[in-house]
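Dear Dr. H.,

I hope your travels went smoothly. While you were away I took the liberty of generating a structure for the chain from your last submission, since the lab meeting agenda had it listed for discussion. I wanted you to have the full record in hand beforehand rather than looking at slides cold. The sequence, exactly as received, is reproduced here:
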Amino acid sequence: MLFLLGYPLLGYCAPAAAKVVMANLRMNPGGPFNYKGPADPAPVGEQLGNGWSGEKEERIIFECPRQEYCITYAEIRPVKAALPGIKYTDGYNQYDVYESGVPGIGYVLGIRDPNANRFIPGNAPVTQTFPADGTNQSAPNIGYRGRIIFVISGSHLQTGTFTIPAQTVAYLHARGKGVDDQSLLSISAVTIKIAARGCEISSSKSFAIDLGDAPMNAFPAIGSRYGGKDLEIQLKCDTGTRLHAVMTDQSQPGNTSNILTLTPDSGASGVGIQFFYDNQGTPLSFGPDLSSTGVLNQWFIKEAIRDGESIRVPLTARYVRTGEVTPGSANGRASITFSYQ
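The corresponding predicted structure, in token form, is as follows:
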């Protein structure tokens, strides 16, 4: 007689990751958005016009099978890197600003639970959206309300019709017990029409200023100035344009003093260079290379009262003593950025 003995096969089966994505979140800002006004209408980071935004809500984007509490963490990961030095604030939080592809216009992202009152900034590279800071929770599902706002990004607005194509702007990610899934936060195509008033530079855009040689005894004390070389920039402006400008130290862009830093290839020390506008006695202070309204150390030049009006910007450069003087070459690099307000 033949006996067949059966033995159970023992082994381990790892649980498969649960698929929890239920929906993507697509925001439709609407439009077309129309703008007519100065090329630099507001401080950097401020919203451009009322209604230049869009929101969309999905009550459930991630959901666990059988309503298990499987989600323990969620986050938003913007697709683009944030623009440096620019923030938007809603009165509670600061938001990173991202390039939209339209000159002078960026966007910010906000995200919140449909039952929450305030948006969380969708800041780069990643922002946690669940659980709330200081808590340790899990959830059977997660929904979101997304928001996009268009803001000033720091360069001149340009006249024309622009289309921001439909695109994914961030990834929504959920993790937990057997869960590791991703959804998309995207926007529909947006059309923006801009009629911006401003100016065109009608003179040279580049100047090489030779301040000549300065004798050592020309600087008896710190703050002593020597020499002077004039230059003039000319612009033609549209009616109503309020022309402003700011100078930037290209060797040290963060310099906000009134003394231009010498370039690294300079042999001299203890001296710097100052610029004076229209023979005024106070030297110009330096600021960031931005054209938006309200930039640090930006100064007002003139308002154009007719189309094509020629506006001149006379400047004078002088050496100034800053410390113990040693002889050698003294070179500097500066730029001037105009703002059309």
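Two observations you may find useful: The two ends are 104 Å apart (CA to CA). The domain at 199-340 is CATH 2.60.40.1090 (Immunoglobulin-like).

With kind regards,
E. W.
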